[in-house]
Amino acid sequence: MKVTVDRDRCIGAGNCALIAPAVFDQELDDAVVVLLDPSPPEDSRPAVQEAADRCPAAVIALHH
Amino acid sequence: MDAMSLPALPLPREWELPFDPPPSPAPAGSRVVEVACPTGLTAWLVSDYAGVREVLGDGRRFSARPGQASHMLSAFDPTSEPDGFSRMDGPEHVRIRRNFAPQVSHARRLGELKPLVEEITDRAITRMLASPQPFPLHAAFSTAITTEVIAELIGVPPAQRHLLRNAAQALFTTTTTASSLEAALSPLFGYLYQAVASRRAAPGDDVLSRMILQGEGSDRPLTDAELVDMNAALLIAGFDTTASMITFGLVALLNTPGEWDKLVADPALAVPATEELVRYLGVGTGLLRQATEDTSLGDQEIRAGDYVVVSVQAGNRDTALYPDAEILDIARKPGPHIGFGHGAHACVGQQVARMELNTVLAALATRVPALRTAVPVSEIEWKRDSVVRGPVELPVTWS
After folding, report:
1. CA angle A14, A18, A23 (to 5 degrees)
2. Cβ neighbours of residue B253 under 8 Å, at least 6 residues apart?
3. How many whole angstroms separate alpha carbon B107 and alpha carbon B301?
4. pTM
5. A47 contacts in B (CB within 8 Å)?
6. Is residue B377 within 8 Å of residue B95, measured between CB atoms?
7. Is A13 in contact with B99 (Cβ distance < 8 A)?
8. First and final CA of chain A: distance in angstroms?
9. Using alpha carbons only, what angle is made at residue B167 by residues B163 and B173, rounded to the nearest 5 degrees?
10. Are B145 and B194 in contact (CB under 8 A)?
11. Spans in chain B with pLDDT lower than 70
């Protein structure tokens, strides 16, 4: 599984870092998403998918 | 079509159907219908889940410029020059949003806030248990907690907290005029201008000081006016909407067979219960957008400049979200509901609101398991002229 994020459109809502903290963090100064692991293990797929679905700015994408 | 012959925008009627969105006047098979809004605005009403997400998720085609609730609030002119971040689009909006996101929606910051919210909640329950019954839950519990949390967060001293209540009352009441709104907001704005000046001179360990310090380190530091606007929005929206959701949510929990018992048996369900209550009851009066270009929604052509109202509560009851979306089920695995909105303007305070709701629900289920409403739902008095829905007051008992 490959994960990408669009940092330019991120609003720092924080859902991803709360739902899948092993994969997503946030910058301290503007709360923008930090992708910790662009190729997370397969067992994290449900959490990553949930983070993508619940991102209000729709900036997280999963690529198989 | 002229506004006189259009169906009216359907609004919640909690005194008849306490927990449900009103039926859409859209003809069968049609996703979009033109309606006349309470302020006289004509708008396309979108009530399906995919349609609401499409509109809120595309700020390029559907601008926030007219104001989120200018279809409901007489004091707002959707054609006026945008006067704050809630009416901005694109990078300008993101710039402001990123200034306060670290204070209210950063996972680590939320971890620091949790003990404060728990302590405030515990004290409120202790006061409640020492009070005579029936007890006025909305004023003395829900509103007391959310006011204290947001005031502590931003650093507003107790003597100034009444300014929030007066401002929220005027801002969210549909019949408030522009001039009376200005009069009601000006004491809070005056206080915040002074607070910004004093924090610039001597920063403390509060959100306002952190926003100032962070802005000073950026390419385009925030102006005093921008800081005042953002903090006023956080303060006003931050206590009233959350308090109303606590109270309204408890009415639903305590009067839907089995739901309160599930929470008492397992207070950890407070986390999914929070998502479910916000999904089930949130944003009954909808949100306003304006098309920036000729476009379409489903089969319906939309012209540049047309207004669009999205019914968030109806969208959240769509079977496209859950096959049994009309059921309140606090144990449901949280899904991508739109109760905090969607898109770049999704609720700024959503993580703080979540924390307050789930802290309060877990603490009440643990310490006051016998809680119940002291009057039948049919006798509850509901707010009718506000965009923040819920009971005016909720008498409760526990013994």
Report:
1. 95
2. B259, B260, B263, B273, B277, B330, B361
3. 41
4. 0.95
5. none
6. no
7. no
8. 5
9. 150
10. no
11. 1-4
Beta strand segments in B191-322, E? 287-291, 295-297, 300-302, 307-310
CA–CA separation, B343 and B185 (whole Å): 28
Residues B384 and A1: their CA atoms lie apart, in Å, by: 49
How close is the nearest chain A Cα to the Cα of B190, in Å? 27
Q: Do A56 and B343 touch (CB under 8 A)?
A: yes
Residue B266 CB contacts under 8 Å (≥ 6 apart), including other chains: none
| Distance of alpha carbon B12 from alpha carbon B10, whole angstroms | 7
- Single out the residue of B68, B25, B36 nearest to residue B340, CA to CA: B68
Pairwise CB contact (< 8 Å): B105 & A12: yes
Q: How far apart are the first and last CA of chain B?
A: 57
Q: Which residues pair with B35 in a beta bridge?
A: B43
Buried b (16+ CB within 10 A) or exposed e, B10-29: bbbebeeebbbbbebbbeee
List the pLDDT tens digit at each of the 64 positions of chain A.
Answer: 999 999 999 999 999 999 999 999 999 989 999 999 999 999 999 999 999 999 999 999 999 7
- Whole-complex ipTM: 0.93
pLDDT at B207: 84
Q: What is the DSSP letter of B188?
A: H
Cβ of B106 within 8 Å of Cβ of A12? The answer is: yes
CB contact under 8 A, A26 and B107: yes
- Let me know the angle formed at the C-alpha of A39 by A36 and A41, rounded to the nearest 5 degrees: 100
- Please indicate whether, in this complex, the C-beta atoms of A29 and B102 are within 8 angstroms of each other: yes
Q: How far apart are CA B84 and CA B229, in angstroms?
A: 6
| B32 strand-pairing partners | B46
Structure tokens at B6: 């259009």
Taking the CA of residue A49 and the nearest CA in chain B, the distance in Å comes to: 10
Chain B residues interacting with chain A (CB cutoff of 8 angstroms): 57, 94, 97-99, 101-102, 105-108, 110, 214, 217, 334-336, 340-344, 346, 350-351
Spatial separation of the C-alpha atoms in residues B88 and B72, rounded to whole Å = 19
pLDDT for res B238: 84
